[in-house]
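(Protein data)
===
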Amino acid sequence: MLIRETKLADVAGMDRIRRSIEPWHVATVETQELWFEGNPPEAQVFRVCVPSDEGLDAYVWGKRDLYADKPGATIASLGVYPTARGRGLGTALYDQAEAYLRSIGATQVQITVMDDPASLAFATARGFELGATNRFISVDPRVLPPLPPTPPGVTLMTARECGPEAWHAVVDLAARDEPGDVPFGGMPYADWLIMDWPTIDRDLSIIAFVDGAPAATTALNANYATGKAMSAGSDCLREFRGRGLVKLIKSVSLRAAAEAGITTAFTGNDLVNAPMRAINAWLGYEFVGANRSAVKLLA
């Protein structure tokens, strides 16, 4: 087994593995290259892979979670192509990643695993405690319920029209309320501008202003070659919740996606996020699959 450092040129191989595992994986290779290069030095990213004639058989990465609400938190991701399983690749790669994370002082590591018996068993056998369930769902954006009316005082813009400052003002605060095993502690504007803003489709992502103040956003990551899109988050500031803003802007965003040629739109919801689950049920989303968060204490 050859294990080597993962390079930017390997992103296409990582994409092949992701597509084989996750039906909802939508991001283009170009977007994933932005993710690969966008980490600040403080993240101390570790990446290794197992190459194959087709590209990659397996990969793993691990890094500091700079945006968690406590120090010492790290995250990791492991992928093995289905036909390469059973050869010990996942174990070999994960062991290297965990050893590295321990060496930089990690106190915990969070991973995401598919909600199937083999994946869950792999995690629990390595000391992970299973946590939140994330349900993935999809909808045909060409078939939606009637568009809700826009309330008085509400103005809608695309991300391209509003620019990054107003968008970040919403997502950085509102996302801290999202459920999860490792709470989000906020992302500095400079990091967000490099890592997140370039990856959303600025013509399909919508923001709502209430009396001129940025209030709610919904973002899409689109792959026009496949006709698929994935939600990159829907957020609403606390003081504007309960007004139907997310329902409205998701409806507008999905209609724009349909007009742009998107035929399948995916999103993911934490199982306990009842308000978003209700909105997505109204929009007609149907269940596709699920994954689980898993956390292991290292110190």
